[in-house]
Fold Enoyl-CoA hydratase/isomerase family protein.
Amino acid sequence: MGDILRDTPAEGVCRLTLNRPDALNSLSYAMYGELIDHLEAIRYDHDVRVVLLTGAGRAFCAGHDTRAGGAPDWVDEGLGKAQWQRRIMDKLGQIPLRMRALPQPVICAVNGAAAGAGYALALAADMTIAARSAKFVNAFHNAGTGHELGFSYMLPRLVGAQRAAELMLTGRAVMAEEAERIGLVLRCVDDARLMDEALALADAVMANSPIGIALTKSSMWLNADAPSLEAAIEMENRAIFMSQSTGDTAEKRKAFFEKRRPKFTGQ
């Protein structure tokens, strides 16, 4: 068994739990590789409608495990320092890219501290819910480095450029209620309600067709950087053309008029 647990807390929901509670779920090189493998497998698992990412114990993720040392098995021996670091960062950078590329929405349930790489994971999710105990810690400054895992790209798009500049340049932490107020997270909830709220959000997503959700997610993130309104509309039009030809879209309309929950078949 690895350090990331995978289970199914509700039909259609795949939960990935960072499971090194004694180390506050800090990420070893092995865990980075494990997470990438899980995301790749989930992408092609049609039984998974929503991905839920959380942490075991009293923290979400304390960032990179700086005490683990050693080299991962996916880096060749004998590389120079710069080449070694580039190989590491190329691999780690796949994580936010794969989270965004999944056809399934990713909901992050942040319990306790989300520091450094853990902070970046929360930013990469499609939606993030925070427990009131959550704390977002810019640990990159503590390590004397710049930001990584797409942090400097994602944060301004959530909270705006000036707020992102203040958070990144000062390195100050953000508590859950402020995170909700500035748009860093969708909402904060009582700790005891965190998983229930995340599962309720997943259930609301799954009331819509799988192809509609996949196309909506991809259109939203691609259009966040669309070069023009025309390009954004063209993307939306293509998504509509594709989804309208499916049986699941017809089932969604039928269920709406019959006031019942739709039954999707992937057709």
